[in-house]
Amino acid sequence: MTQEFLNNKLISEYGNELALDITENYSVIRKTTIRINTIKSNINEIKDILKRNNIAYSEVEWSNFSLILEENQKEILKELEIYKEGKIYLQSLSSQLPPLFVNPKENETILDMTAAPGGKTTELAALANNNVLITATEKNKKRFERLKYNIEHLGAKKISVLNIDARNLDEYFMFDKILLDAPCSGSGTLSPSTINNFSEELLTRSIYFQKTLIREVIKHLKPNGELIYSTCSILKEENEYIIKELLNENKNLELVQLDLSNYNRIPTLPVEIKGTLCVRPTKLYEGFFVAKIRKISD
């Protein structure tokens, strides 16, 4: 029943051919991808160490801090000092995209909502040379501890970590930029072991949380500030429809079209809102959605 509901959703949104391609890629074992933690290392050092350990890799054309392992050598990688020292971080290519669109600049204030386990938080810090002021929130205590560990392990600085529901932030918190990587149904990342976790109930619950989170977070965005909204879902109810509803409710917000000129080789799905990105699940990429909104006034 779960798979039938999902299949019907995919067919209604993307048609038979794309729906079949998506479901076939749910069964693909994706290659391991790593993000070089530029706070502690650089891509040349990591490439040299991988070569010396006979770990084959390929580069990512849109990133100078990402590598794709050509064979499933994750466990070997975890034994290397570069992993233990936090010089690399296991992170999917799709997950690395939202911080790039945040484009953090030194001394900006940034909120990372629902931040655990910290991959995007620490990427934001690295992109701004460890000189951006980040507030990272996570309400789940166990995930909060993991977030703190990864921030410390990867050497990220100037990060305030709060064990709270981001919807309960004090009103005086205001930010230049906000990353809301929202809890979702996970319809872009399903695998044979997780596909039964997807359900109509999960989708309904996810949409509710997405709407409440995005409405609340807008209150904490400075004028001319930007919100990056992302999910690991490929369903329009969690993506474009959330954005459309928010823009219809708030005349002080506008959509900012993403500059996708460097990402034209990424596999995508058709979107209803020009300038947003929906990544298609493949053997390299998880399904992911990204959109940018600007607050034009209070």
What does this structure look like?
- It is a single chain.
- By secondary structure, this protein is an alpha/beta fold.
- It has helices at residues 2-25, 43-52, 74-78, 81-84, 97-102, 119-127, 141-153, 200-217, 240-249, and strands at residues 33-36, 57-59, 66-69, 88-90, 109-113, 133-137, 159-162, 175-181, 221-231, 253-256, 277-279, 288-295.
- The longest helix is centred in the first third of the chain and has 24 residues, at 2-25.
- It is globular and about 55 Å long.
Q: Oligomeric form of this entry?
A: single chain
The percent range for helix content is 25-40%
Number of strands: 12
Through-space gap between termini: 46 Å
What count of helical segments does DSSP give? 9
- Sheet having the most strands: 8 strands, mixed
Radius of gyration: 19 Å
Strand and helix map with partners:
Layout: H1 2-25, E1 33-36, H2 43-52, E2 57-59, E3 66-69, H3 74-78, H4 81-84, E4 88-90, H5 97-102, E5 109-113, H6 119-127, E6 133-137, H7 141-153, E7 159-162, E8 175-181, H8 200-217, E9 221-231, H9 240-249, E10 253-256, E11 277-279, E12 288-295
Parallel strand pairs: 5-6, 5-8, 6-7, 8-9
Antiparallel strand pairs: 1-3, 1-4, 2-3, 9-12, 10-12, 11-12
